[in-house]
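Lecture notes, unit on protein representations.

Consider one protein chain, 146 amino acids long.
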Amino acid sequence: MSVSLLAAKTKEIDPTGEGLSPSYVGFIVGGGKSVRETCSDRAAQLIAAALDREIADFFEDAIFRLDESTSTRRTEPGEGPTALPERLMDQAELSRFLRKSMSWIDAQIQEARARGELWPGLIYVGRSRRFDPAAVLEGQRLQRSA
């Protein structure tokens, strides 16, 4: 099936009638330099439905979360000074969660960097930013009370 035909099928099955653009479908299913490793849940659902297949046949869940710590020194999640947060968010998710723009988050990170600090809740995973929402909220609470 061609990219343009798959895009047209997503439009047919999408309840909103929007579907996915051929270029976005190409980014997801293509094999060139512009291929993307991730896509939105909506895009995955539309592509799988257009092909009459299960999402798991084509897409892996991008969030890998351990319910228990793998450390031999801790027995419960959330214990100890290096405990992992329950869930990490990317910047777009944090933006929706806080109801702030992504540029507002960028500005907060830059201001903290100018002060020689790391913005509360910011965790670098390789070159990607991830955020602990609980730590971000606690940092904002402390900043307001200061």
